[in-house]
Amino acid sequence: MPRIIKHPEIRREELLDHAQALFLTHGYDKASLNDVIAAAGVSKGAFYHYFASKEALLEALAERFARQALAGVQKVVDDADLDPLGRLNALLAQSRQAKVETAAEAWALFETMFRPENLVLFHRINLAASKSFSPILVEIIRQGVEDGTFRTFDPEGVADIVMQFGLATHDVIAKAFAGGSDADMDIAIEALERRVRLYEIALDRILGLPDGSIRIGEPGYVRAVMTARRSNPALGGPIEGT
Amino acid sequence: MPRIIKHPEIRREELLDHAQALFLTHGYDKASLNDVIAAAGVSKGAFYHYFASKEALLEALAERFARQALAGVQKVVDDADLDPLGRLNALLAQSRQAKVETAAEAWALFETMFRPENLVLFHRINLAASKSFSPILVEIIRQGVEDGTFRTFDPEGVADIVMQFGLATHDVIAKAFAGGSDADMDIAIEALERRVRLYEIALDRILGLPDGSIRIGEPGYVRAVMTARRSNPALGGPIEGT
DNA sequence: CTATTATACCGACCAACGGTCTATGACTCA
DNA sequence: TGAGTCATAGACCGTTGGTCGGTATAATAG
Questions:
Q1: How close A102 comes to chain B (CA, Å)?
Q2: Would you tell me which CATH number, out of the four given (1.20.1260, 1.10.357, 1.25.40, 1.10.490), belongs to the domain B66-231?
Q3: Which nucleotide is nearest to B48 (CA to C1')?
Q4: Predicted TM-score (pTM) of this structure
């Protein structure tokens, strides 16, 4: 095989890209290292020059995901005009759609991300994301408590619950896929929509806010994302690139 | 090797027992099938006579865990004298200590269960447990709503949140281990204790109850469990038997 | 009391896996 | 130009989860 030398950063990103596609489509366990290096067109030696192990590759991938997610909400965090409630709402709404622009793209991400074989990958991303998001949330809640918008004796605890809720949709979504049939899907969508309302109210309460203050997402958003699958059945394949 | 024939049910339980010990001590991934069959004193052929794959073994183990946990709360569920709130509280308190009698035992379980390499096992158990517990919780909440004790528009959603909270201590506990030092441990214990109070209040609110109605666990329980480690350092080994 | 079938078990074997190692082509800089 | 470092290649290794043909024991039938 001819020896192709690329700029280390590019090579590393390429490895991450192909690993991402393969991990998402086949799952971390089932996608072998040989698959990854074959897809990336690289030798074993080259791979182990960049990553210490398959595990390390997963870790790096999770970190990249988290970095991207964080970048996606940075302008909300930096917006000095927002009060704590506004910032929290913006963050919740933003994180719901993350880096996803259209409902169709959202579907593709959901489809791949929430399949059971992606448990490990998903968990790593969550871990990495929590590490970046938690301090931000805590800071927002602290400010809110200081200026009297929020009321709570455990800002970190509330921040944890906020994150938990932000990610808890996972289970409901996963169940929607597990069901399979359109009828099951419909039921899951309704349940998810109701769940979001419930989360909003729960957050209102534990933050000492009047009902209706927290807005995680506008009604109908879930359905829009979910039904995008039918309008574009080609989605759900590997997610290439950054 | 001499051929030893046992009653199928016994052999199967033995395999599950040794798998449980090994999975908990080394993690599902790191404990190899050869380890399991060596510990159980059985050949490859024998193993595959009982389980279709390593994955199936994990599944069966998770189911057994869930079955045992369910049996542990059965008398609370069947207690006709309890009103919905009392039953819910009893269930929350019970599930917190599960099959564990002493704080020392609780530590051993926590120590093994919540180590990061047991993510997969833990998740499977959760899945299986949720499947058995959810209907029970929903039924209790439904009854509470009917007789006016609780107020909510989404009993299933509330049930989900209750389960979530019941298991959410996982993350905080995991962080306690991740830290390692005694100081970190102390901080984690304080955080966990505060978190429990927060959960109680949150559940009060989303169930439309006055504050102080929900009692997940008495104050100090977390510390009692956590500090049991120092008083009995021998703990943390494999958990043998049923 | 055999003959036959079904069940529980054994262990050699296999492809594929993650990971290691040595070799070497390709740049860098003096 | 030559020494040294970096990026790559690919043969190789022990172990893994899993398969397979065979065998001893138990259950059943004639």
A1: 27
A2: 1.10.357
A3: D18
A4: 0.83
